[in-house]
Design brief:
Length: about 90
């Protein structure tokens, strides 16, 4: 059996009785937040899933036609989760 399906079934079993009946409105959302295998919040939109890598150029001596590029550091923007629904019993 698929490990993601096992985890989802465990989360549903640990949640409310509405989850067991398939009436949980949070399950209609694309991004779910779990705490201790219980789905707490669902979001339908997320933004900020990008990264930017700053590169440092280094020109090697003797090979003047080639420039090495090395990663310097990576930056990530803040994640923005929107259109959410909280499932608290």
């Amino acid at each position: 059996m698929n490990p993601e399906l096992i985890a989802l079934n465990a989360a549903l079993a640990a949640g409310s009785t509405a989850s067991l009946l398939g009436l949980d409105p949070v399950m209609a959302y694309n991004i779910l937040v779990e705490i201790c295998l219980v789905v707490i919040v669902g979001f339908s939109e997320v933004s900020g899933l990008i990264s930017e890598i700053e590169l440092e150029s280094y020109q090697e001596g003797g090979l003047n036609g080639f420039v090495h590029k090395f990663p310097k550091h990576t930056t990530y923007p803040n994640l923005v989760l929107s259109r959410g629904l909280i499932n608290i019993d």
